[in-house]
Amino acid sequence: MAPQRLLLLFIFLFYFSSFPSTARFITGPSSPTDLFSDGISTVKNPPFLSLKPLFSAEESCEQTYGFLPCTTTVLGNLFLIIVYGYLMFLAATYLSNGSELLLEILGPGIVGGLFLPILGALPDAMLILVSGLSGTAETAQDQVSVGMGLLAGSTVMLLTVIWGSCVVVGRCDIRDSVAVDGTITKGFHLTETGVSTDIWTCYAASIMAISVIPFVIVQLPQVLNSTSGRHLAVLIALIISVSMLVSYCVYQVFQPWIQRRRLAFVKHKHVISGILRHLKKQAFGKLLTEDGEPNTEIIRKLFETIDENGDGRLSPSELKALIIGIRFEEIDFDKDDAVMKVMADFDTSLDSYIQKEEFVRGITKWINEAKQTGGAYLEPNAGTFKFIDQFHQQTKREHALLGSEEQSDEVVEHVENPRWISFKAVLMLLLGTLIAAAFADPLVDAVDNFSTATSIPSFFISFIALPLATNSSEAVSAIIFATRKKQRTASLTFSELYGAVTMNNVLCLSVFLALVYVRGLTWDFSSEVLVILIVCIVMGAFASFRTTFPLWTCSIAYILYPFSLALVYVLDYVFGWS
């Protein structure tokens, strides 16, 4: 982002604000006896005067901070919305770029799990905050609809337009219900192209759907037609929303550790399935008896083939030779770590060797676990069961769903000059925060004045226009990331979208509820809450139970956006539902 553009905008705003915000109205003389004519005294109500509200206004306006420009005209406020919106876009861009720089040298841990989600939601939170702090309670009640419009519009745009666009640009050919990385030969086929994500993305979608609980709670009094419990419902929803915010941040902090543990467990299962398949081949399909029980005699003979020195026990080096000889091509893992875990499963005597009976008991245990997981499928003309192959295939799918291992929360060694990068990241985060804090209030005022000048409800202006400013940087980043056409990047892209909506539902809503409770405002947003619930629940449920999204699924997202806007309009301004 070129700093010269920002500097020019500041200079322009300073120059523009140096003059009083007044206007000269051209009117005809009050008396026909005036000796001099100004050239228009003989014209009565000319047609072009019907456009006067676009360029001038008779009402005065209050300058934000006492010096920033203001106007009551349509075009003037439209210009201010564009300028202030661009500044909020700059703030979001600086916050996003600073977050990415910080993430280059620090892992997800505390930085990625706690600070970055909060910083990503900061511009929206600032706009919501200033919309409820302006002037008297009556003024705040009027302007708070800007905050609710931004909250609803941001959530809807992320889960509809941006979500659908990521599916379109990130699509790959689908084979065996999984999108193949970097392969696109079927164009825009609705069912045979799409994107695939990992299982953690499903968890993120589920959390997003759960995060709408505070909306339900705050809306209960209106559903029950109760007026006495509305203030209490706001307080309860605020407490739950803050609790969910803390819980979500804690989960984000520990999620990389949880993912590493899950991935390590699945890798160990993969080693188990690989050894069982290898032993099954060595036993010529006779690893089990006819009734499906482990064949202990065959297992003892297999032990003797692995025991290279014939001392009646397996050493770690012999076990490692077995694992290396199997050639696990599907995944890459630490062979020494795999040996240690197999030894821990088999070596019950703790003498660092696997005795023959320990080997038999260990293999029997593994076979029984595979039977429970893979199911018992009779192999025709083989005299054994196919559940070992089923267990192996299921383990491969689990590993693919978990994705690759996350980076730890430590300084990355290959990053050059990490101190300078850290300083630059912090500087960009501070600059983005300052810009968002400084220009959130003027933007809300401009939206409110534009609404007054055009008689368009401020909710619709904030619903459509403001998310373009606060989320455009995030949207462009997500779409560009999705164009890499890989499962890993698709998983990160959709996880970030679900995470951003979750922060809207907990952080931004917490700010909004705190304003309503502290200032004694009226919660009067039934239709807006309904839209948020519909979009979050539909998309959350849709993304929680599947990891592959064919191209046709983007149509659902695209349809939800105009549906949401039309629903709010019909409920609020046709039926008067509040």
Automatic annotation (TrEMBL):
<keyword id="KW-0106">Calcium</keyword>
<dbReference type="InterPro" id="IPR002048">
    <property type="entry name" value="EF_hand_dom"/>
</dbReference>
<comment type="similarity">
    <text>Belongs to the Ca(2+):cation antiporter (CaCA) (TC 2.A.19) family.</text>
</comment>
<dbReference type="InterPro" id="IPR011992">
    <property type="entry name" value="EF-hand-dom_pair"/>
</dbReference>
<dbReference type="InterPro" id="IPR018247">
    <property type="entry name" value="EF_Hand_1_Ca_BS"/>
</dbReference>
<dbReference type="Pfam" id="PF13499">
    <property type="entry name" value="EF-hand_7"/>
</dbReference>
<keyword id="KW-0677">Repeat</keyword>
<keyword id="KW-0050">Antiport</keyword>
<keyword id="KW-0346">Stress response</keyword>
<keyword id="KW-0406">Ion transport</keyword>
<dbReference type="Pfam" id="PF01699">
    <property type="entry name" value="Na_Ca_ex"/>
</dbReference>
<keyword id="KW-0109">Calcium transport</keyword>
<keyword id="KW-0915">Sodium</keyword>
<dbReference type="GO" id="GO:0005509">
    <property type="term" value="F:calcium ion binding"/>
</dbReference>
<dbReference type="GO" id="GO:0005886">
    <property type="term" value="C:plasma membrane"/>
</dbReference>
<keyword id="KW-0479">Metal-binding</keyword>
<keyword id="KW-0813">Transport</keyword>
<keyword id="KW-0739">Sodium transport</keyword>
<dbReference type="GO" id="GO:0015369">
    <property type="term" value="F:calcium:proton antiporter activity"/>
</dbReference>
<dbReference type="InterPro" id="IPR004713">
    <property type="entry name" value="CaH_exchang"/>
</dbReference>
<keyword id="KW-1003">Cell membrane</keyword>
<dbReference type="InterPro" id="IPR004837">
    <property type="entry name" value="NaCa_Exmemb"/>
</dbReference>
<keyword id="KW-0472">Membrane</keyword>
<protein>
    <submittedName>
        <fullName>Vacuolar calcium ion transporter</fullName>
    </submittedName>
</protein>
<dbReference type="GO" id="GO:0006814">
    <property type="term" value="P:sodium ion transport"/>
</dbReference>
<keyword id="KW-1133">Transmembrane helix</keyword>
<dbReference type="GO" id="GO:0006874">
    <property type="term" value="P:intracellular calcium ion homeostasis"/>
</dbReference>
<keyword id="KW-0812">Transmembrane</keyword>
